[in-house]
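Researcher: Here's the sequence for the chain we discussed earlier.
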Amino acid sequence: MPARTSAATTDWEKPGVIVPKLTHFAVLLATLSIWLLGVRAPLWVDETLAYWQISGGFWKIWTRSGQMPSSFSFLYILWLAKTFLGSQEIALRLPSVLAMAGAAYFLFRTAQELFGRELAFISCIVFCLHAGIVFAATEARPYAFALLMTNCATFALIRWTATNGMRSAVWFGAAAAGILYFQYLFGAILPAFALYYLAVRGRSLRVDGAQIATMMFSFALVSLPQAKRFLQLFQSRHMHIFAGDPHWSVLRQTLVPCTLLLTFCGTLVLAISHRKLRFSGRDWSLAVLLCPLFGLLPMAILYGISAATPVHVFIPRYCLVAVPGAALTWGLLIRCIDSHPLRKFCCVSFVVMILFQYLTVPWFRHQELSFKQAHEFVNTNVAKDKVPVLVCSAFVESNFEPLPTDLTNENALVSQFSYYPVHAPVILLPFSLNDEAKHVGALAIAAAMQRHERFLAVASSRSYDTLLWLASYSKGAFKAHRLANFEETVVVEFLPPPAGN
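Model: Thanks. This is the structure I predict for it:
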């Protein structure tokens, strides 16, 4: 009997197996801790838009979400978080943190199906430490939920092709449709799903006909409620173009992070010197097919759209759809190193380097345009005289829509002042220097001349041309000088000449 007990001892009871598993788990926890560095950062302009869309209450979310490209599903989740947790930055970002943790879990399950537990941890760590993932996990935007549904659908697809079960087919169809509820452009992953299924199960299409029909019905049924909103967005797509021509640097940033590449190359040299490389193993063909396909095909689709049409969508935030495939591909590459200590060395070195960069290099922590500091400075400056403040809109849609004159208006352009308000009369200008910007600016300058009072102007780096035009147009009547710079925003004061001059 004692001999049987000894033979039945599980791997978890052996110290030689427990320690490596605990090591990977500890490294993963250290990885997730990086996400917490950004939860208290100021809201950037797209996050203030999301806050404005939920600030009017549950019944206004649907109409407000239709004014600019927004995920109404995410907004209802954000409204629940605000209702129960409050409106602090950390409360608004907590749903994204939890959703990204779920996305990491489904990526782990997928990698475990392909590579085993050890490399699943490594792939998950690569995913969690990607700069875009770190930022998306700590912003009040829908990208974490879009990645959650993407990784859930990927895992469901793997299970469906492996088990050929009806339940997995329904699950996959619903999860794939769920992606579109949070980011339409993440639909670029759907052709990769189809190609993978055809490659794995192409010879059994007739046998799988019932399951395919059920999957497609599940997809259509879940997709139907947001089809109208998608058509409205497609018809107004020209109004939301803010990015420039596609650049190949986005491909490198998304698929081949420099820190990871350096760490892997260093480990690869050690593996070659110790003859610890292998290029075969369990389910190798499936992994080779899946990983690069899910990483490269969505990037190719987004690049093709940006290169062939005026709708430029080849930017880091939309290319996040390819990060799960990239993480699995890196797991596939690290799998070639036939040494547990070297794999662990690669993983730990990568985590240590990323931690060092995030903790010591300020610019390494990804930041987006926020008006918090600029608005706080303006409020202090105008506390006594409440002079007018000209503010260039941070939204490109302001170039096409009538500008609101009242900040209580049901117009999404006022969302820039919803979370960080300006306590003075605000005159909103378009995003770009156009005829409307010149017209509104000229009227504001004329009014200030009549009252012989100073005024302020606030703009982001993309609207500097408007500030230069205001200074040129008012030359002689006002003296313009810069009061403050806050990363991507600048505050300029326009002073009239002393009385009597």
